[in-house]
Amino acid sequence: MKKYSFVINGNNYEVEVLGFEENIAKIEVNGTPYSVEVKKELKIPKTPTLVRAEPPKPTRKESKIPRSVTTTTNVAIKAPLPGTIVQVLVKPGDKVTMGQKILTMEAMKMENNVLSEKDGIVRSVNVKAGDTVMQNDILAEIE
After folding, report:
1. Is the backbone of residue 13 left (phi > 0), alpha (psi -120 to 50) or beta?
2. Residue spans in the chain of domains classed CATH 2.40.50.100
3. Distances from the Cα of 138 to the Cα of 45, 60, 64, 75, angstroms
4. How do the pLDDT tens digits run along the chain, 143 residues long?
5. What's the CATH fold of domain 75-142?
6. Sign of the alpha-carbon torsion through 52, 58, 59, 62
């Protein structure tokens, strides 16, 4: 049936399982036949179970979320993709609301609207219709 090779205490053993009858296995070890009683088949899981230590609880100081102090309130509107500016809808000094369309750009043969990320006043517009921009180029600033 099946052949196995074992090394026990430095000795090599060639074992062949010849057959099973109920709970008795007929085996041959290095050419010598044996009848072995099989008590129970051991099931070895295929994937080990990972046991992870629980992370330590944060200290009182660590659990407080620090306030972020910003010295500037300007928001840079960046190009989401490389492309060409088709239309600029605002100019410096214009008031804009969050979600308002600021300009339209063509990227990958599709027109994309670039929207304001906050309410404010347009501080600068760095592009004009026909300009080619790369991803993350600053298109406009809102304060």
Report:
1. beta
2. 75-142
3. 56, 40, 34, 10
4. 688 888 889 888 888 888 888 788 888 988 889 888 888 766 777 777 778 888 888 777 776 666 655 555 788 999 989 999 999 999 999 999 999 999 999 988 899 999 998 999 999 999 999 999 999 999 999 98
5. OB fold (Dihydrolipoamide Acetyltransferase, E2P) (2.40.50)
6. positive
